[in-house]
Amino acid sequence: MSGRFRNRVCLITGSTGIGAATARLAASEGASVFVVSRDEESCRALAEEIGCGYHVADLTRSGEVADAVERCIARLNRIDALFNVAGISGRSFGDGPVHECSEDGWNITMETNVKSVFLMCRAVVRRMLEQPVGEGGLRGSILNMASVLAFSPEPKFFATHAYAAGKSAIVGLTRSMAAYYAPSKIRVNAVAPGLTRTPMSLRAQQNPDLLEFIKSKQPISEDLIEADDVARAAVFLLSDDARAITGEVVSIDAGWGVSG
């Protein structure tokens, strides 16, 4: 490994799937990792595996978000990188095509996937603005989790309109933040994965028709994308290897966006 995260603090929301894969990779690259999730069991397991710090919090509650960031600062003194991963599909709460989407489905999906990103970004940016510029000439880097569904809809298998709207909102937030905070030496980007093998995609993994569809929709992999593939892109974008990149939304989709 390159050690490109040596002496850097990386705060990651989410303790399974892409979040866990990124935490492992960042730690192997020398980062001091701090994980925030509402799932204490997976947080503890990840901490035991890679030696990271963690805090259990509901990221839709501003007080709990502020406390999580304070815990990270108290343990590690600063935050060099933030990866907002935590989120839900919303389907089980009533998300679906807009004419069928329940109000609860819309609200829960938006609160969990968008409000949590806003609250975490707000708390961390406030800290980053107070930090001195680091060795690479930056105060920090933020990476948000979008989705190919934000701009490449798939009506047959993924008609979850609250989810797509929320991920589109994250794209807008990312680019607006990138423009505003660039003079302060804070970079903000997003990744937009295709269908990835995580606990959240378990329903998809058990659907033979969808798996057959994905062979042509994601022709590079002919399967679900592995969480490690997203993690590798995330670590690059969070590191100083990407120090000149901000305001970008990077698709990690195995060809989804260019396949009919």
Contiguous helical run count: 8
How many strands, what sense, and barrel or not for the largest sheet?
Answer: 7 strands, parallel
Structural class: alpha/beta
- Read across the widest sheet, the strand sequence of neighbours is 3-2-1-4-5-6-9
CATH level-4 homologous superfamily: NAD(P)-binding Rossmann-like Domain
First-last Cα distance = 37 Å
Tell me about this structure.
The structure is a single chain. The chain is an alpha/beta fold and 260 residues long. It has a single domain, classed as NAD(P)-binding Rossmann-like Domain (Rossmann fold, 3-Layer(aba) Sandwich), CATH 3.40.50.720. Helices cover 43% and strands 16% of the residues. The chain contains eight helices and nine strands. The chain has helices at 17-28, 40-50, 62-76, 103-130, 161-181, 202-205, 208-217, 227-238, and strands at residues 9-13, 32-37, 53-56, 81-84, 140-145, 186-193, 196-197, 225-226, 249-252. The strands form two sheets. A seven-stranded parallel β-sheet has the order 3-2-1-4-5-6-9, with helices on both faces. Strands 7-8 form a two-stranded parallel sheet. Helix 2 links the parallel strand 2 and strand 3 (53-56). The longest helix has 28 residues, at 103-130. The chain is globular, with a radius of gyration of 17 Å.
